[in-house]
Structures are given as C-alpha cells and as structure tokens.
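Fold this complex.
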Amino acid sequence: MLIVGNQKTYLNKNSVLAFINQTKDFKQDGVVICPSYLYIDLFCNNSNFVVGSQNVSENESSSMTGEITAGQLSSMNVKYCIVGHSERREYQREDTTMFVNKIKCLIKCNIIPIFCVGEQKIDKENNLTKDIVGKQILEVLSNFAGNDIKNIVIAYEPVWAIGTGLVPTNEEIIDVVNYIKDLISDKFGINLLVLYGGSVNKKNISLLNQISSIDGYLIGGASTKVDEFLYIVSECSK
Ligand code: PGA
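Structure:
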C-alpha cells in the first residue's frame, strides 16, 4: 500500500515544524509526504517520511529562473513527484505535452512520477468517466517505452471529489480502477499501481479500504492534520 500526502499550500513554516515534531517517532515504509518545495529540506532532514514533490520543471536545463528541476529534487533525496494534478491542469494550464516532459525528466533522475487523472462532474453526469480517464492516460503513456512506463504510478482522482467531501461509491471506484488497470495491461502489458484520491479522510477510509484493487491513496487536506493522517495510515495497515 502506498499512501501519499499532498500537503499543497496548506502549511506555513511553523505548522510544518509542528507536523514534523509531532510525527518524529513515525516510521513506516510506503508513506510519502509531498510538502511545498520550501519544506522539502525540512522533511528530508528531520522526519522519517519518504519525501515527494508536488511539482517539477518540465526542463532539465540549468538556466530556468524560478523553476526546480528533477535533478535538483533528486539531489534532495526526493523519491516521488506528482504530475498532472487537476489543480495544475486548471490553474496553471498544464497539458499533456508538459506532463510528458515532466515525466521524462523525472524518470531520468529515478524519481517515481505519480500521474493524476480524473473526470469533471459534468463528464461523470454524461457517463464519460472512462473515456476521459482512458484518454488522459493513453495520451501520456504512449510517449514512453515499457521500461519507463513500469516506473509510473497512476492516481485516479475525480476532480469533483477533490476537496469537496464528496467521494464516489466503492462500486464506482472499483469500476474505474479496474478499467485503468486493464487498459494499461492490454496496451502495454504492464501492471501499474493505481491510487485513489479525492476527499479521503478518517471517516471514509475504512469503507474505501474494502476495495482490494486500490493500491493506495493520494490524500490532500487530511494529510496536513497529524492525528487524521496517522489514523488513515494505521487503518491502511490493517
Ligand atoms: P483532498 O485532495 O484529499 O483534499 O480532496 C486530494 C488531492 O488533491 O490530491
């Protein structure tokens, strides 16, 4: 099980220090925290969490003012990086070409990309979830050879579930996760890990955990609250 906390821009330095202090005895494989770039060093040096990044530059050049490259992340001991998150698709207008470039840079630096896909509410209402998710996946993965694809993790995050408290039914999640796994295995002959993300919290984790085909979770808001995050981790370890 892979549990990834995406702390987004929720925390400032003092709250990050408090989070690290309150989790200093925590040690468990497969639990990743993706802090803001600013706090990657703090997590790497003062906590036992595996550290991921929320973003990376799509260029590996050494003259990209204001960017952070995969090589730089790797030099900080970052092991994972989120790519294609719906907030970057929407607010930073990131697209498939950028996701492909970012994933290429990450793979070159041995950082595992966590590639996010998911439908909007309107797509779901029009029964287009699988069409949208399938297109998002194939447009990106078809740029890679099998050897590279096997290093990618997929996160299924319905856009309407992110930060809203709304979660699909277990049956709906099973349907999409199985579709993603079958699609990738049919096209590329590879079995990838598929995470679920979108309003995972302490109230719904035990129900979600009944889904055996989910390989883990991408957790936003709930990953910024120590008690809630550790509760979710302990539920996932059962
Ligand atoms: P949420 O965010 O858990 O707060 O819904 C998930 C995400 O954006 O990855």
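The first strand starts at residue 2 and ends at 6.
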